[in-house]
Amino acid sequence: MASAVDDQQAEDVQAGIGHGSSFDQASLDQLIPAPMSRLRTFVVGGLILMGAVAAAFLLGGGYLVPQPTRGSSFGSDGALRIDREGGAFIGEVMMPNNSARDVRITAVDLDAPGAELVTVTARIENSTDGEGRGEDRVASLPLPITVPAGERAFIAVHFRPTDCDEASALVDAGSAGPPWGIATATVDFGDGAFPPLNASVRLDEDPIAEVGGSSLLTADQLLDGDHPLALACEVLR
After folding, report:
1. How high is the pLDDT of residue 130?
2. pLDDT at residue 90, as a whole number
3. Residue (of 155, 139, 140, 166) closest to 232 by Cα position
4. CB 4: neighbour CB atoms within 10 A?
5. What is the block-wise mean pLDDT of the chain (237 residues), using blocks of 10 residues?
6. 85, 147, 173, 181: least CB-packed within 10 angstroms?
7. By the 8 A CB rule, do 213 and 223 touch?
8. 210 Cβ partners below 8 Å, 6+ apart?
């Protein structure tokens, strides 16, 4: 008799477990979404592809982050000039704006061992002008300055020698020495622009001195030398 009761209880337990398992499986089936149809898969894939293309276009065109020199090669040539009022020398470097948006230069740093940066001014010139730095040349203005899309800025960095021993070392290095006088411009889209982002643009394609000699334009003559810093030190002696 006891054995029959035990067998019945075991059957009841097994039935309960089976019922519970069926209930749990049904609940899990409800949590798993049904497979997407081919049309829905195609639409979702198309939207993802369009989003990726749009993001690449906006980033590449400099719409989201200032990228004025992206994908460009540039350079300029010019003699040093003397800022007699400020007791400094002026080297000019170029920053083209090849992006699709206007950018604003808010600050400039100068990597020039043996010299200190005194001040910075800039002028804007249309990069489509085949004559380059001719009739379009205008006076340099203090920062900040806006560079319209498709145009270029010539940044005048006013520097003063601080270590003429460094100049001797640079002259000794000659063509084996590194570029000297590399400017880094901080740029943004302007006040109130969206997105409110800025970026640092290192203008290492147009240093004040690439390698080798340099020249200094004075009021009455053009002086040639082995390095801009050495020329500046020579004039100050």
Report:
1. 42
2. 92
3. 166
4. 8
5. 53 50 58 74 75 63 79 75 85 92 96 94 71 52 94 94 86 73 95 92 88 68 79 82
6. 85
7. no
8. 179
The count of other CB atoms within 10 Å of the CB of residue 67 is 22
Q: How many residues does the chain have?
A: 237
DSSP assigned state of 205: T
* Tokens 């082995």, residue located: 226
Place of tokens 């798993």: 32
pLDDT (0 to 100) of residue 149: 92
Q: Is the Cβ–Cβ distance between 90 and 156 less than 8 Å?
A: yes
**DSSP of 17-58, one letter per residue?**
HHHHHHHHHHHHHHHSPPPPPHHHHHHHHHHHHHHHHHHHHH
Residue 134: per-residue pLDDT: 39
Handedness of CA 187, 188, 191, 196 (dihedral sign): negative
Closest CA relative to residue 114, chosen from 60, 160, 83, 48 = 160
Q: Where are the alpha helices (DSSP H) in 67-226?
A: 164-173
Q: Which DSSP string corresponds to 113-140?
A: TTEEEEEEEEEEEETT-TT-SSTT----
121 strand-pairing partners: 142, 156
Q: Is-contact 114 172, C-beta < 8 A?
A: no
Q: d(Cα 67, Cα 85) in Å, to the nearest integer?
A: 35
Tell me how far apart the alpha carbons of residues 122 and 144 are, in angstroms, rounded to a whole number. Answer: 9
DSSP 61-74: TTSSS--TTTT---
Q: Give the per-residue pLDDT at 129.
A: 45
